[in-house]
Amino acid sequence: MNAPYSQVQRLGRLTTVLGADALVLLRFDGADHVNELFEYRVEALAASGDVDFDALMGSHATVTVEGARGRRHFDGIVTQGRWLGAGENGHRYDLVLRPWFWLAGRRRNLRIFHNQTVVQILRALFSDYATLGDPALELKLSEDYRPLEYTVQFRESDLDFARRQMERHGISFHFKHAMGSHTLVLTDDVLAHPSIGERPYKGHDGHHQAEEEHFWEWAPERNLTSGAVRLTDYNFKTPAATMEADRLGDATHAQGQIESFDWPGDYQDQDQGRAMAGLRLRQERGADRRNRAAGDCLSLGAGMLVSLAGDPVPGTGERYLCLSARYRFVSEAYGSGGPGGEGYAFSGSYTMMPDSAPMAPPRRIAAPLVSGPQTAFVVGEGEIDCDEYGRILVRFHWDLEGANSMRCRVSQNWAGNGWGGMSIPRIGMEVVVEFLDGDPDKPLVTGCLFNGQNAPPYELPAARTRTVWRSNTHQGQGFNEISFEDQAGREQVYLHAQRDHETVIGHDQSHQIGHDRRKTVGNDQTENVGGNKTITIGRNHAETIGADKVLSVGGDHAETIGGNMGLTVTGARAQTVTGDDATTVTNGDHSVTVANGKQEVRVLAAGRYTTVNNDIVTISETGGVRVRAATAVVLDAPSIMLKANDTNYILIAEGRVVIEGAETFINPRERAPNL
């Protein structure tokens, strides 16, 4: 076995962390692409059959090929290594080189980005890989990208998430290479790509082998694509806004106006929709024009611009963007029995598009779908945190970084313009979150859950027959509640107001109570009836008043009592009648008893009349009775008797005046005794 090997004078060399010429290049095959990862396969030779794969794996390896216009580096991370066997010249190995971006495909994550542009998101994402290139990332972007309220990486690799966001916003990527390093380059305009100048086309003929880089095959190609894009979307903040947007392509051939319609369009208003429709159209129409070529243009790689010169073919004089390049290089043999160097040492095949054609990365990475509901905890400031739409913040159980979600809309049982149901989940509650169209960027709270920390308002299963809606006093202790007990024989509707209870009824209110009703008022009670009030009591009515009672009647007051009426006043009683006062006893007696004191009746204006239709009027006093008048006292009757005792009286009747007494004085000179 001939060893060691030297690559110093070779057209192709392999450099690894194992040291100079520890592995020497035999063969190199690979391809790189715009908007795809490159992959290079390297066949190498080593004197030892015990290569240190632990040192080699995950490290940079660089293939360098010398060409007519200088050398070209092809750098990558060693992601696979294999021993192929031993021969007379040494041990052969197969290595696979991929970009550091490929490593991002090995890491899966779930995380949330708030109010960041796609550029900020990509920078944050790629910062974890910054040491893998010098530099690892280069941005050549010219567009202004709006901040995104909420963007979720959901159970997808960093690679897929980054590519999905780039495709979403029309950002392309390719790689540029240096010794021991490669750089991910992001662009959004074809002019941001480097140009290698002109390369000629010369027909496939062997006498051109030793000349400068050129193409020996050239084939223009056309592809039928969608020729129009129509999108629409919905923004809950502007539900009546027109959201439809469309764009028509430039194809003039038959079937060139086939329209692609999609929902949701991923935008917030119609202006954004027009821009998004334009991007989608470029993504569709960008697949139309292609040019397939073959040659030995070592300096041409994916993401580079080249102008076609040389023999006239369709497209000569135009400039093209290389979309993909496939390379093949065979080194000179090391000793006998190795790979030969017949034909071209380096050859390539290329796929290009005119630089005037629409350029945007096609959408290849599918967005993740949330297959079902999730649960999360409500978070925020204070006890209740919502915005003017009732949206809340939640934190998902998978969010290891503790980032809150965006403001999530909350499903209500009814929602109209100023009417409907409203129940805002509070901090610490566990809620059910679903996702519109399965999109993790569009969470929607649809329910709440009890758990080991948040217990039901009644103990279960004991209260399993009770349906409850109980609130919790904000910044205090207490609750409001309405609940229904459905246990047979114990059915109940229960209402509890922690403080005030107001009922507003636009028209009638009816209460029908099959049994008792009890009402207890701890303080004042006020009733205001604008019309009539009717109370019908089938049996007894008892009222107890602890202090005063005031009754004010603006009109008439009538009371009808079917039986007896008793009125007991333990103090004084005063009655004032501004009009007439009439008491009628239709059947029975009328008595007024003054137990201790006197009775006084004063008529200040007109006369006073006492009429008895039956029997006689008897006035009985234990003391004296005095009748005094300012003018005259008139007794008008067929018979009038003034009686002092059984033997002394004055009788006026039937035209006679009878005076009977032990002594009688008429016009005495001295006043009679006791008068």
Automatic annotation (TrEMBL):
- In this chain the Gp5/Type VI secretion system Vgr C-terminal trimerisation domain maps to 468-577
Q: Which organism is it from?
A: Paracoccus halophilus
What are the alphabetically sorted keywords of the record? Secreted
Q: Which Gene3D superfamilies match?
A: 2.30.110.50, 4.10.220.110, Baseplate protein-like domains, Gp5 N-terminal domain
Q: Which InterPro entries match?
A: Gp5/Vgr_OB, Gp5_Vgr_C, T6SS_RhsGE_Vgr_subset, T6SS_Vgr_RhsGE, T6SS_VgrG/RHS, Vgr_OB-fold_dom_sf
This chain belongs to the protein called Type VI secretion system secreted protein VgrG
List all Polar residues biased stretches.
522-533
NCBIfam families listed in its UniProt record: vgr_GE, VI_Rhs_Vgr
Q: Which GO terms describe its cellular component?
A: extracellular region
The top of its lineage is:
Bacteria, Pseudomonadati, Pseudomonadota, Alphaproteobacteria, Rhodobacterales
